[in-house]
Design goal:
Largest sheet: 5 strands, parallel
CATH topology of the largest domain: Rossmann fold
CATH superfamily of the largest domain: HUPs
CATH architecture of the largest domain: 3-Layer(aba) Sandwich
Radius of gyration: 20 Å
Bound molecules: zinc ion
Order of helices and strands: EHEHEHEHEEEHEHEHEEHHHE
Number of domains: 2
Shape: globular
Strand content: 15-25%
Number of helices: 10
Distance between the termini: 40 Å
Strand order of the largest sheet: 3-2-1-9-10
Length: about 300
Amino acid sequence: MVLGRFAPSPTGVLHLGNLRTALASWLSIRAAGGRWIIRMEDVDGPRCRRELGVVQLRDLAALGLESDVPVVWQSERSSRYHEALARLREAGRLYPCVCTRRDLQLLASAPHVEDGLRPYPGRCRERAWEGFDRALRFRLPDGRVAWEDLLLRAQADDPGSLTGDPLLFRRDGCFAYHLAVVVDDGAQGVTEVVRGADLRSVTATQIRLQEALGLPRPAYAHLGLVTASDGSRLGKRAGALGVEGLSNCQVTPVEITGWLGWSLGCLERPEPCSPEDLVQSFDWSKVPAGEVRVPETWI
Ligand SMILES: [Zn+2]
């Protein structure tokens, strides 16, 4: 059974880029007769707020995108992440990291770091185990990871040069994104991960973590980002480009879905429709891999 998921962080309004990812995932799964779920990635500290997640679910439902099973909130699943950490500890794959943010800034040598991502330089790799009350990092094995992306085709990355050993557990007791995402994709039986191209650079790292936990590897698709009509990052205007913001500008949910469907190669031109109307024509080979610009009249 094919199982896809949309997994937003409840830190703000879902903008058109997020909604495009959700629709692409939904269409891919519906076209294959599978199951589609929504998961709230709310482990990452105080920026995540339950009420923002509720608004996100409401906006998705307005477009006709609803989870086939009750929505999972990661903040309620700590015991699973603890178990995974214990397994990695037994396998000798965890080590304590005592670096402060300032230490890491001083160590960062790369002059141009894509998307603000700086690989952890491995400063604490040789430290002895000190218990679960420390920040913990995952020891990556050497070498490149190859995978076949549904959209970008053959991919290969060296996770050591992109993220370095990822943080899995923070000193403040929070589980980090990489751990929660990998554990839950495995626990929920996710077979297909559709997400924005901004997360492509962490895929190799997450595959290494799956391997260490003995979890199957899902198929990946990394969609081009949605930019403002002038090609710039959505940034501050992103909130205006959510379901509610667009509705205030007289853009209806069926018009949003039609534009998204057109941007995914399902329609000749943007025209109002429901997600169901797009299932027959969805095909990964027709989805453009590049960035997509929001219509000028919407911004
Ligand atoms: Zn360190």
